[in-house]
Amino acid sequence: MKKKDWLIFIGDLSIGYSRGILRGMANAIESQPLMQRYAAYHVNIQELSKLDTNDVGGALIGGLSDHTAAIKYLKRWDIPMVDVAADQALPWLPWCVRGDDDAIGRTAAAYFMERGFRNFGYVGHARHLAMARREQSFVAALKANRHSVRCFHGSSERVRRRWWPHGMYKWIKDAEKPVAIFCCNDLRASALLVDCHRAGIRVPEDVAILGVDDDDLFATLKGRTISTVPIPTDIVAERALTMLISLIEGRTPPQKLVLVPPQPVITRTSTDVMAVTDELVRDSLVYIREHFAQGVSIKRMVDELAVSRPTLEKRFMAALGRSVASEVRRMQLEKTKLLLLNSELPMPQVAMRGGFSSAQQMSVSFKRFVGMAPTEYRRVYSKERSRGMGA
User: Fold this and answer.
1) Mean pLDDT by 10-residue block, N- to C-terminus, for the chain (391 residues)?
2) Which member of 81, 109, 173, 322 has the greatest number of CB atoms within 10 A?
3) Structural domain count, the chain
4) pTM summary value
5) Any domain includes 240
6) Which H helix or E strand runs over 367?
């Protein structure tokens, strides 16, 4: 390599977000002609004291809240640096590209409210600024809809080589159920899931759990899959590298802070439930799911449930805040999004499995309520997800 052509990433690779940033760096350098003179390399935090920066052009910095010694070394470096974690431990570093934590919190709140929950909780990390922002926006969005949130910020203790939130077991046992819990990341969500199993608490029937990051390890363990708000780390890495290379080349980037919005929630087993106490509405939701692939006839449903349409509509509005038709459409769109992201099925088959009568009907509904055509959605979001997974 030529001198100063190394771009390094400093972060904890036990965290899915950091692994995504490193993969995103490699993908960006490979795919962007203006970046191909550089090479990406990961540096462990413990190696900073021994690192010679003579061949390093610049660095992306991950979360360092718990590593005060590492911060002392970074302050001595005379190379451009960009923060990709919005770490409160780095107030001296003005350049930052990160996920939009406020949007993440709002996304989580809307997701749970759509599922009819009335009890909410948050599991966070008290010392990390990004996690605090997610909590604040989550709580604010629910408060605006007259809901309250029980928050947990227990200290961490070392248990079998991993940090475990002390006191969370008792906190979740005492929580009023059913409850929807938003966790600051998938690592915390995984810990909560384990504590629920230890306590004999059903997931998702009693506790629905939503994380952040789409961690390729903790969110996808067999039998313990976790619903998550994905952050497109490939986009974060690419924009951070663009900012970093501008600094290396002596140019001032147009923005000091770049926010990257989250992707749509990925629903897995930890939230695959509707929190409804009305037995008629529950029976209706079961009916919709059982007849989903064949197309749901609301007229046939009210006949089989022996209830009038006005009564069913009134009960749906009271339980979920939306009409029967709106719920059918929500389920159709949710299923269609998953099919578009996780399969290569042609549009007619996606429409059929998504509960639509035709690809044209699916396209019209998708454009109206999602804001883009199904083909565009697949192209944009499946590409971002595959990049984030290192494909």
Assistant:
1) 76 87 92 85 79 84 73 81 78 88 96 90 84 94 96 64 73 93 94 93 92 88 86 94 94 93 89 79 83 82 91 89 88 86 88 89 92 89 54 38
2) 109
3) 3
4) 0.77
5) yes
6) helix 359-370
**Would you state the structure tokens that stand for residue 240, as one six-digit string?**
């951070």
Rounded mean pLDDT of the chain? Answer: 86
Tokens matching residue 72: 């002392």
Q: Do 215 and 111 lie in a common domain?
A: yes
CB atoms within 10 A of CB 16: 26
Which residues in 51-155 belong to E strands, given as ranges? 56-61, 81-83, 96-99, 120-123, 149-152
Amino acid found at 174: D
| Distance, CA of 187 to CA of 232 (rounded, Å) | 17
The CATH number that applies at residue 344 is 1.10.10.60
* Secondary structure class of 104 (helix, strand, coil): helix
Among all chains, which residue has been given the structure tokens 């046992």? Answer: 173
Place of tokens 């059918």: 328
- My answer on whether 186 and 334 are in the same domain is no
Of 229, 247, 271, the residue at which a domain comes to its end is 229
